[in-house]
């Protein structure tokens, strides 16, 4: 929707192309019209291809989570939490965005080692004795 340039061109002459435009999350792939040998009024529109980006999950030894590869600004479905024996998953080092950002992203799992309480009860311990009986 932004006008980059307007130019008056004599019949059968060519217009000068502006610098290729930049749009976050998209690749510029050309113009909608050829503007050489102009013989009528033209509105030339930039043509775009949406980019795909990747979110990679580094579980630091936990279960594997496949990368998410999606188009820019599409909704992201949250993966299941990873599992790591002896640890509790605390989350990711960065927040997972709701939609795909315009850059690749790596998230690293945060873990807390599980701790267990061991109680030794002396009161209920019965001593065993070995008795040697000889005949």
What are the defining features of this structure?
135 residues, mainly beta, two-stranded antiparallel sheet, rod-shaped
Question: Explain this structure to me?
Answer:
- With 135 residues, the protein is mainly beta.
- Helix content is 0%, strand content 27%.
- It has no helices and 6 strands.
- The strands form 2 sheets. A 4-stranded mixed β-sheet has the order 4-3-6-5, with no helix packed on it. The chain has a two-stranded antiparallel ribbon with strand order 1-2.
- It is rod-shaped and about 125 Å long.
- The termini are far apart.
- The model has no long low-confidence stretch (mean pLDDT 91).
Query: What is the number of beta strands?
Result: 6
Strand content: 25-35%
- The pLDDT mean sits at 91
Structural class: mainly beta
Q: Which sequence of SSEs, written as H and E, runs from N to C? A: EEEEEE
What strand order characterises the main sheet?
Answer: 4-3-6-5
The parts where pLDDT drops under 50 for at least 5 residues are none
> How many individual helices?
0
Largest sheet: 4 strands, mixed
Classify the helix fraction into a percent range.
under 10%
The geometry reads as rod-shaped
């Amino acid at each position: 929707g932004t006008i980059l340039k307007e130019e008056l061109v004599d019949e059968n002459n060519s217009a000068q192309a502006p610098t290729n435009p930049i749009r976050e999350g998209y690749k510029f792939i050309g113009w909608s019209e050829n503007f050489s040998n102009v013989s009528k009024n033209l509105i030339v529109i930039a043509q775009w291809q949406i980019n795909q980006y990747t979110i990679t999950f580094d579980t630091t030894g936990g279960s594997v989570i496949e990368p998410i590869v999606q188009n820019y600004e599409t909704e992201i479905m949250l993966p299941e939490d990873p599992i790591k024996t002896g640890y509790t998953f605390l989350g990711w080092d960065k927040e997972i965005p709701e939609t795909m950002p315009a850059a690749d992203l790596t998230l690293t799992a945060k873990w807390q080692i599980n701790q267990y309480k061991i109680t030794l009860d002396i009161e209920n311990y019965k001593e065993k004795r070995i008795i040697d009986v000889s005949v």
